[in-house]
């Protein structure tokens, strides 16, 4: 039987989901930029340079960048955003109390192009549906409980 989130964790799940969605989109975009950069570097021998001799933004032969090498910047930025993405995965995974293979699948979203976008939509839909069903269950239980009349204390 799969575990369900704790009652005390329910208020934090919506924030964790929002953090996951933002991290997922940023990491996905950075991964696509990294893939495009790798394609340019290894297929065509070009790197992206900012503010060099060829203009504000230009492709230059690999290893000849004299100004800011954006290719390296994209690689570093994706690495740091991936760490942030892993943290958001772990936070949502631990609050939802999913299985370990589910965490591994979420982690793959930052290394397989386009997977983070698909997972973001699927996970968000699933978590929202769970929260809605849990709220409906809680509402039906509380409406079925007998309402007791308050007792007034006398002096």
TrEMBL record:
Membrane spanning stretches: 20-44, 64-87, 99-119
**Annotated membrane topology:** Multi-pass membrane protein
- Domain DUF3817 span(s) in chain numbering: 17-125
**Superkingdom per UniProt:** Bacteria
Q: What is this protein called?
A: DUF3817 domain-containing protein
Pfam assignment, any one: DUF3817
Tell me where in or outside the cell this protein is found.
Cell membrane
* Cellular component annotations (GO), alphabetically ordered: plasma membrane
Q: Where does the secretion signal sit in this chain?
A: none
The alphabetical list of record keywords is: Cell membrane, Membrane, Transmembrane, Transmembrane helix
């Amino acid at each position: 039987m799969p575990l369900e989130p704790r009652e005390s964790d329910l208020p934090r799940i919506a924030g964790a989901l929002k953090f996951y969605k933002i991290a997922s989109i940023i990491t996905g975009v950075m991964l696509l930029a990294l893939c495009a950069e790798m394609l340019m570097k290894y297929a065509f021998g070009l790197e992206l340079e900012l503010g060099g001799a060829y203009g504000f933004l230009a492709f230059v032969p690999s290893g000849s960048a004299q100004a800011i090498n954006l290719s390296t910047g994209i690689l570093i930025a994706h690495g740091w955003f991936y760490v942030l993405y892993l943290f958001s995965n772990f936070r949502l995974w631990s609050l939802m109390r999913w299985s370990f293979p589910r965490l591994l699948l979420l982690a793959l979203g930052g290394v397989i192009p386009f997977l983070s976008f698909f997972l973001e939509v699927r996970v968000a839909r699933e978590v929202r549906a769970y929260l809605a069903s849990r709220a409906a269950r809680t509402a039906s239980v509380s409406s079925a409980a007998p309402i007791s009349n308050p007792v007034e204390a006398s002096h």
